[in-house]
Design goal:
120 residues, 22% strand, alpha+beta
Length: 120
């Protein structure tokens, strides 16, 4: 059963089965400005590109990032708080999944435009 937490004025939804799954924003509560702020950073755009290209969830360590582990953790956190990714555990691995379908409903064309701009 989903748990809803209120964080400031934003609703955070998660399915806390073992207490290790972090909270995620409800798709209806995702703020465009927070999304755009998250996507300003090239490392975070790289994470989004890699998750899209993989077409499946990836663990944090499988994405080759040009930053330290603690900095990478920060980038994943920012993306999760902006609602771009969903994180969960499989064993001891924290998995990251792009919330592409949810984003397409909330902000039609945003992720395809991002991918197109990175190619250009």
């Amino acid at each position: 059963m989903p748990v809803v937490q209120l964080v400031g004025e934003d609703a955070m939804v998660t399915t806390r089965q073992d207490g290790r799954v972090p909270a995620h924003p409800d798709p209806a509560a995702i703020d465009l400005q927070q999304v755009l702020d998250a996507l300003v950073d090239p490392v975070r755009r790289l994470i989004v590109r890699e998750l899209h290209a993989a077409g499946q969830a990836l663990s944090c360590g499988t994405i080759d990032l040009p930053v330290s582990k603690s900095t990478a953790t920060h980038h994943f956190h920012v993306l999760r708080e902006a609602g771009l990714i969903r994180q969960y555990y499989i064993g001891t691995s924290r998995m990251n999944e792009l919330r592409g379908d949810e984003f397409e409903q909330a902000f039609p064309g945003l992720l395809p435009a991002l991918r197109a701009s990175d190619r250009g």
